[in-house]
């Protein structure tokens, strides 16, 4: 299992546009077999940092999602929306191996 953590630097004046972009991606990640854990938008503190996390069963499954997303019309539209609105200044992607409470799984 692998969790992708995204840290976005966004245009603080385009928070509404970024929120729309985020709402587009949650079902798209799930469409390709991932589990989205949500977007975390600025509240207190920095007004231009947003986070997102989603999990795939493996790094291979994540890579398949990335490849398929480049051909999927809904994903292409979401990429285009971000490009047109310029709500994202940049982002970085980091991968983690989650550790869960074993009792919670039982």
UniProtKB/TrEMBL annotation:
Annotated InterPro entries: Dimeric_a/b-barrel (IPR011008), NIPSNAP (IPR012577)
Pfam family, one: NIPSNAP
Top-rank taxon, per record: Bacteria
Domain NIPSNAP: 7-99
Protein name stated in the entry: NIPSNAP family containing protein
Lineage: Bacteria, Pseudomonadati, Pseudomonadota, Gammaproteobacteria, Pseudomonadales
């Amino acid at each position: 299992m692998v969790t992708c953590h995204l840290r976005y630097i966004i245009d603080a004046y385009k928070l509404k546009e970024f929120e729309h972009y985020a709402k587009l991606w949650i079902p798209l990640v799930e469409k390709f077999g991932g589990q989205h854990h949500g977007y975390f938008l600025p509240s207190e503190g920095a007004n231009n940092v947003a986070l997102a996390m989603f999990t795939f069963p493996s790094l291979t499954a994540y890579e398949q999602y990335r490849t398929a997303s480049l051909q999927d019309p809904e994903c292409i539209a979401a990429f285009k929306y971000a490009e047109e609105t310029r709500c994202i200044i940049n982002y970085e992607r980091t991968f983690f191996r989650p550790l869960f409470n074993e009792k919670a799984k039982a």
